[in-house]
Amino acid sequence: MTRDRSPSREETDRRAFAFVMVILLLMVVSMGLGLAMMRFSAQSKTVARQVAKYQEHHLGRGLQEAIGAWLRQQNGRDLTEVLEPLTGHAMDIVLADGSEVSVFLRDAQGAALSNLSGSSDMEIEEGGLLLRNLAANTDEDQYLRDTRPFGPFKISIASASDRVLDAASRVIAGSLADRFLAELGSLRYSGEPITRTELTRVATAAGLDAEQRAALFRVFATDIELWAVIIEVRAGGGMRQGQTIARYGGVTSIRINSSSRTGNPQELGAFITWRELELGQDYDLSQLY
Predict the structure, then answer these.
(1) Which of 125, 145, 148, 217 is 20 to 30 A from 135, alpha carbon to alpha carbon?
(2) Tens digits of per-residue pLDDT, 237-289?
(3) Highest mean pLDDT: which of 92-106, 156-170, 241-255?
(4) Which residues are bridge partners to 102 per DSSP?
(5) Cβ atoms within 10 Å of 226's Cβ, excluding its own
């Protein structure tokens, strides 16, 4: 007669231990696979970012060369005379695949310089007052839109916001600021080029003294150096032919070099910023600073 043999406690413990070890092993393997997949995913994202940066870098370099060639064709003419007045459209480039790239240049010197390191003592004093005036009359979002961390100290009257013009005018004209602002507004919206001659006329009409006139030319620019470059790419074929499929923007400097022997006094600098802009919504130049 046989008798069922119940497992001993020792055997039960061994089986339980083995089961726990199997579970632990499965957990280790799962964690290992998970970490490997995470590393692979991270590496893939890193590679994708590097490829995107590489493409954007070379797009920027190619665009820089194209704009440089376009500037040479202008023979030193003022950019405001050759750009489309409302949009700043400069040129179109047709690529080998039929895609079309439209290039726009916009005055990007209307914001106040917020980083005054490297500025002269006078610029630091006047720039500090200007920034305090601006901060006192704006909220945080407006202040960020009205300031930039790089570029010349001088501000473009044509592209500055009313808030920046007000803050700057109070530094320049003191108690005559309101009268000066009115004269400045008349010049700004007259369509006339903003030249030293015109600013001198404005200063005279507003009753500015010699010291205030000197401040006027320290704070406001007549030659614009800082420019935003916006490009829009339209598909050359397929379902989206003619539609805008990408938009990029950056800030560069176009310096005036009157001593140039090449017949081209405008020199294009490297892009200070360069980034992709979202489609389907308006953009602000402050996004490029």
Answers:
(1) 217
(2) 778 887 888 999 999 998 766 555 445 557 777 889 988 898 877 888 999 99
(3) 156-170
(4) 92, 232
(5) 27
Buried-exposed string 4-18: b where 16+ CB fall within 10 A, e elsewhere: eeeeeeeeeeeeeee
Query: Are 91 and 105 within 8 A, CB to CB?
Result: no
Tokens standing for residue 86: 């409302």
Q: Angle at Cα 138 formed by Cα 133 and Cα 143, nearest 5°?
A: 90
d(CA 38, CA 229): 38
Please, where are the H alpha helices in the chain? 9-73, 79-82, 121-136, 140-145, 162-173, 177-188, 196-206, 210-219
Q: Where are the domains of the chain?
A: 59-107+224-288, 114-221
The answer to whether residue 22 scores a pLDDT higher than 70 is no
Q: At what angle do helices 162-173 and 210-219 cross, to 10 degrees?
A: 150
Tell me the per-residue pLDDT of 186-198, one tens digit each, with 9 for 90 and over: 999 988 889 999 9
Which residues is 249 bridged to in the sheet? Answer: 230, 275
Residues recorded for the chain: 289
Residue among 172, 209, 88 nearest 184 (CA)? 172
- Amino acid in the structure at residue 90: A
Domain 59-107+224-288 carries which CATH code?
Answer: 3.30.1300
* Type of residue numbered 224: I
CA 253 vs CA 28, 53, 100: distances in Å:
56, 21, 25
Q: What percentage of residues in the chain have a pLDDT greater than 70?
A: 75
Largest CA distance in the chain: 127
Average pLDDT over residues 95-122: 92
* Run of H or E including 257: none
- What is the SS3 assignment for 240? coil
